[in-house]
Design a protein that fits this description.
The protein is mainly α and 335 residues long. It has 14 helices and no strands. It starts with a helix and ends with a helix.
Length: 335
């Protein structure tokens, strides 16, 4: 673990701590005046994240994307995502869990176990460990990270919500089924994450580029995502704490820091023949701690905010150890 990465991790904890302090001191308002975590979450989800995603996808250089490396990363990541999602749906069907399980629980745990902190931790880590060439591969992965994972997860959670509505008797027969399918499709597309991504890709294909004023405005809005998300983690941590969340958080932490990079390593190397620097980059991308987008997702669907926050904090702290483990494994393979 390099001094640069350690300094970055300490900066993350310091910013989270400021959010915690602001909530504890009620600088963001008293509880009776509203929920500051909900306000910050909505602000990030409906304004700043869409600006960041639209600008990123509108500026993608699609012809320069390393196709084989992208496939070798996203195939195993999506496999783990669906594995976690499927296992959580299976658990939710048990009689003892049906009453307490929220429809969005499986997708929320799936994003917590697979969505890495590819910007705040990933970029300085890739730059420090792999240099400019490795950073270029990492940036290519980052550019599609939110697009792929959030689109899949949004579709899954909206289907679960639609099924829950149908189970409550809010739809019936063929007409009800068609209405449910139509509502699911609409909610998946008309969504603060998916819609700006689709709009950005559509604009990208026109080849027109972004006007400098528009580009600068989107850049300014997008730059607020990282600090606001970190403050939001601190605010949520002050509201819920980690007491009582250890069991769920440690399970998700193990999935994120150990299971996911192991599956990516096996599939990318022995399944797709990846080796050398590209293999190192995709494995360490998978080994990153849980990113703040998981909390934004949990806030959006009002489920597991405390567990998600605990996982983000604990996985970020544990990354200093697990990153060294995976770097040693990769060094042994490359020897």
């Amino acid at each position: 673990m390099t001094a640069t990465v350690l300094a970055k991790l300490m900066a993350l904890f310091f910013t989270i701590g400021l959010g915690w302090l602001a909530a504890r001191q009620r600088w963001l308002g008293k509880p009776e005046e509203g929920d500051p975590a909900r306000l910050l979450g909505n602000l990030v989800f409906y304004l700043f994240v869409p600006a960041l995603l639209f600008r990123t996808t509108a500026r993608l250089e699609l012809e320069q994307m390393p196709g084989a490396t992208l496939v070798a990363f996203f195939v195993p990541v999506l496999a783990v995502l669906l594995l976690v999602y499927g296992s959580q749906r299976f658990r939710a069907r048990r009689p003892a869990a049906q009453a307490a399980a929220a429809p969005a629980t499986p997708a929320t745990r799936a994003i917590t176990a697979t969505f890495g902190n590819s910007l705040q931790v990933g970029v300085p880590f890739a730059a420090a460990v792999f240099g400019e060439t490795g950073l270029a591969i990492h940036i290519a992965l980052v550019s599609l990270h939110a697009l792929v994972l959030l689109t899949v997860l949004t579709a899954l959670v909206e289907m679960d919500l639609a099924r829950a509505a149908a189970a409550r008797g809010e739809g019936g027969g063929l007409q009800g089924l068609l209405r449910t399918l139509g509502q699911t499709a609409r909610n998946t597309v008309i969504h603060p994450v998916v819609l700006p991504v689709l709009a950005g890709l559509a604009w990208n294909l026109t080849g027109l580029g972004l006007h400098p004023i528009v580009d600068e405005s989107l850049l300014t809005l997008g730059a607020a995502v990282v600090p606001l998300c970190l403050v939001l983690i601190g605010v949520t941590l002050a509201a819920y704490g980690v007491r009582g969340q250890w069991r769920g958080a440690l399970g998700l932490l193990a999935a994120k820091l150990l299971l996911l990079p192991a599956v990516v390593l096996v599939v990318a190397h022995w399944g797709f023949g990846l080796s050398g620097l590209p293999l190192n980059v995709v494995v360490m991308m998978a080994a990153l701690p849980t990113g703040s987008n998981a909390l934004i997702f949990a806030q959006r669907y009002e489920t597991l905010q405390a567990e998600t926050t605990a996982t983000i904090v604990l996985s970020t702290a544990a990354f200093a150890l697990t990153a060294s483990l995976w770097l040693a494994v990769l060094a042994q393979m490359n020897a």
